[in-house]
Amino acid sequence: MNAKERLEQVIDNIEKVIIGKRNIAELSIVAMLSHGHVLLEDVPGVGKTMLVRALAKSVGADFKRIQFTPDLLPSDVVGVSIYNPKDMEFHFRPGPIMGNIILADEINRTSPKTQSSLLEAMEEASVTIDGVTMQIPKPFFVMATQNPIEYEGTYPLPEAQLDRFLLKIKMGYPTPKEEMEVLNRARSAAPIEELTSVISLNDLLELQEQVKTIKVDETIRSYIVDLSRQTRQDSYVYLGVSPRGSIALMKASQAYALLKGRDYVTPDDVQYLAKFVFGHRIMLRSEARYDGITAEEITERILAKTRVPVQRLVGQ
Amino acid sequence: MTSIRKNKLFMAVLYVLVFFMLAEWLTPVIVLTETGHKALFLIFIAVGLLMAFLRVPWWFSGPIKILYILWFIVYVYTGNLLFTGEAISFLRNDFGMNFSALTTQNWAQTTDVFRTVLFFILLWMAIYLIHYWVSFRLSIFLFYLLTVVFIAVLDTFSPYSGETAIIRIMVIGLLLAGLLHLARWMEGHRILERTDKMAMFAVPLVLLVAVSTAIALYLPKAEPIWPDPVPFITSFSGQGGVGSGGNVGRIGYGVDDSRLGGSFIGDDTPVFRAEVPEGQYWKVESKDIYTTKGWELTENLGDSIVYGNNETVDTDFISAEEELETALLSMEQDFPFVLYPYGTKSFSMDESPNYQYNTADQRFETYQNGQEFEPETYEIFFNEPSYSLTALRETSEEDLAELSSEYDRFLQLPEELPQRVRDLAVEITNNSDTVYDKTRAIERYFSTSGFEYSQSDIPVPEADQDYVDQFLFETKRGYCDNFSTAMVVMLRSLDIPARWVKGFNEGELINSEGDTDIYQVTNNNAHSWVEAYMPGVGWMLFEPTIGFTGASSIDFDLELDAADPEQPDQLEQPIAEEPEDTGEEEAAVASGPSFWDRFSDFIAANRWKLIWAMVGGAILAAVLFKIRHRWMPKLLVSYYRMRGGGTERFEKAYLRLLKQLELYGISRKPGQTLKSYAAYIDSFFGTREMSELTEAYERTVYGGDGESVDWPELRESWENLINRTSG
Question: Does the predicted model carry a pTM greater than 0.90?
Fold first, then answer.
């Protein structure tokens, strides 16, 4: 069974519980395959948790959920050493971060201190407590949700931390037809309980390795660089996409190509993912907000005007 | 990725070319304003460009340039090499003067120094501007065009001759434009600048320019179709000469020669056709009075002799005592006189008119029944006179003094003739002993002293100017009238009798029948030359005009035994010289018109046909180009069928298809991927092939997997699509 078929099995599995969100499932897998994390921005109740749980179950991964509240402390995330009077030693009690797939719910509800403890763990794939560094088991995949920033009582994530999420996805409401289907299925038992894993964690690690072998031609690389550079030159943008953003776009495209059963990246992959990779990395000037222009629209505009490479570069 | 602008070598080459281009601007300005110190101005430009090239900051380069300007002023106007106290006070005074002149708006009071400073500032601006064009815009075309226009205008309307400058500018400009285009192209395609890669483009460019320049230099150049605009315009505005000869004239035989000069445009209207064993100069008449502006004839000499048909005539030229040759002339223009070659014995005409020979101008007028008669065809029996070299080498100045008074009219010169003309004649003939040698020396003078043959842009002498003096010392360019008149005048100043002869040269060889050559003589062949009197020998023809081959036949009858053994050189010199000359003549006659002559004649004869053919061709080409998407597919299909398989072929074919589709009207937006474009194409045509081809193409280009592409199989889809685009 090749990579594409295996990954499609996972997606099919997720689709059993999440209706009409195949693209979201795909993007989640893309992020997972390229060692990235996902920021889900949406209102409560559209199935964010269900998506992550389904994904975890499908790959047989350890699933943990952290509900971020304003009083959550860093130690509640990474764990804490507790003094055991019996043997007179401190014992480390791992926090919920020490799992494979983490749902960090409403991440912008908590204080920046706690946010950063999670984000550090995401970047390093390890936590350090009392001077001891501990590796987080692999694979490690965080799916964070945040309420739209206009909501009351939120601590917006700083730019540097947003940059650590590979993709930002909006789930959106289902269509009426899909919502009917959701109701239909919810009448009987919760379908999530019936899910079984379709690939093993080892398979997942193997697929992660496979992503690295996907070819990114020079033309594509220069296309990615072009796109990133364009975001930095746009008059509405005050902070464009960083080189880390370019790397993210390339890696995500590789994973997406694997998902589509190709061993090379095409400009279509790049264009499709650019919206999700760039969306949270472009900081707009206030003029843009006055004009009602969003980062997504700017990305669309840049995609429309940047020349797609259609032939080999000459002279290289 | 580094920018092409960072490549030092490349930019250095550009700046060197720019320097030469600016020098081409500077040169005419310096020449026309009679400014000195061109080298110092050039150094200023070079320093300015060097500092621009090295990106010297303005606070450093600015003072250096100002210092240079000040130094220039000090050096040029005071002669001081350094800023001495005297120099500084000069600068201060001058500044004060100009400042007060400017503040009081007394423009005339400004000094030369001020103008020099302005000129320097202009150069400064030019340097900055061109630096900006080259370094930032990577474009030179506008400047290039302006340079060409500038030089062309100067060449046309000023004494500055841009003949070689324009070639240099074209070469420099093409190189600059080519290199900058390359730079822009590399920037646009974000190709890494690497010297070896650049050489790949730059070397062919240089070769192309070199080869095209060489070809352009080698190829024959058509004479301008339009007359030189300056005399043309002045003639219309009535500022040209007073006389009829003063304006742009049409070439041809005319009667009034009292005012020579002015430009000519060619006229290939046939005059007559001659069947002769060898090309001849056809004499009409001669003139004897030089008026400083042109030629007139002594009136009322009265002597005329009437000859009958076939009667032996007596001209100043005795034919050689050999068998007579026959010339058959068929006139295409009507003249009341006959044209005759040197050594004419008799004329024969069916109408048997009378031939009235005027000794004053040696013209044979034809009369029949007391009326002027214009002959149509006639035969001339003649034999070219031959001259004994022995006799010619005995022509001495003493003999000249003993000539009878009837030769006085051939020694006439106006009193106003500038002395320098006489001095020049003496100077040219200083080393010649005999009269013949002196005459030959003057005849040869023009071709060895930088004179130029030209029919255009020849001035008419002003009221206080002498025609010959102007030609000899000022213009040094002209046509037969200039050369022959100058020679006659110089000979006369040496007391050698000479006269100015009009007629036609041999014309153009158009056919040969056995021993007989057929020449077509047109108005373009109207000519003037010189006859000089060699004492003891007689009248002889001389041809001073550069590029013409008329020459008297010399009989090398020297007795070798009689030669002075101590001076063998003297003996061999003329012998070695003469055969060379005649050899040239023979070569010129034997080879007839060269390929290029015939080529340019063909062009001239069919000019309008060719122009219409070219216009038609251009329109046809434009139409074909416009509708190329209709016929290109057919060509492409058979081309790619012929060329067989291969990944590379497939890639090219695919890109061709993209272009074809664009021509068809379905263009791909810049941000559109091939896949979505292919989907659109397929939905448009109702096909599946474009997606199929695109997938294979993407695999090749983005996947680097060309091996899996089966072009021969895909070709069918490709052909199907490309054929659709021709609809």
Answer: no
